[in-house]
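User: Here's a protein and a ligand (S-adenosyl-L-homocysteine). What would the complex look like?
Assistant: Let me lay out the input and then the predicted complex.
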Amino acid sequence: MVAGSVGAGDSFGGYRAQLVETLRGKGVRDLAVLHAVQQVPRHLFIPQAVRHRAYEDSALPIGAGQTISQPYVQARSIELARLGGHERVLEIGTGSGYQTALLSLVAESVFSVERVPALAQQAREALQSLGLRNVTVLVGDGTLGWRPFAPYDAILVAAASPNVPEPLVDQLAPGGRLIIPLGSRESQELTLVRRTADGIQTSVVADVRFVPLLGEFGFRGS
Ligand code: SAH
């Protein structure tokens, strides 16, 4: 854990504090998550052209037709995972790597799968530049999960899926929590799936809009 040091020394701390207040105002309560937002320099994960908007609570383009999600949705998703610092987390859809960085500060280890190699490489570089060492970025079809490091205490999917990919449920530890936007390509419901002793429990959290999860157990095509 490197909490307290990743964003130290830059001049954006005031902007991050404002973003933290915005998230608090929208109902994010988990102090570890809010602390992570205060620490992680989001502007380092965003292309130069839109960098001036880095601390707005909005989604932004990151290249390859993809977007970095809205900070509120990311903070809420991580909060739903109820991480206490000792969990092994799988993230599907690394994108910019920003949410990966947030996760690295609130979990023990993070495995993140991205299908676009160029995005994975950029994310790796940004994460390394911050000295985050409990993170592994992998290239592949995240709808298959990542079996070698399973089971996971939490799985966060950062792209929209028509249904819950079966391999992800299989790779969830007992008591584990899976957060995934489910629906059509146009609109989805952020959904919490829990693996309990009685089976799988599902609850809908909020209406959201994500880019599609493309792969064997997601949307087919491009
Ligand atoms: N959490 C990211 C959001 C990225 S958008 C961020 O903070 O920037 C969703 C990402 O999911 C895109 O980068 C997209 O390429 C990726 N993606 C889509 N389908 C995927 C799949 N089957 N496996 C892994 N990544 C996938």
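Summary: Residues 62, 66-69, 92-93, 95-96, 98-99, 113-116, 119, 141-143, 158-159, 211, 213-215, 218 surround S-adenosyl-L-homocysteine (CB under 6 Å).
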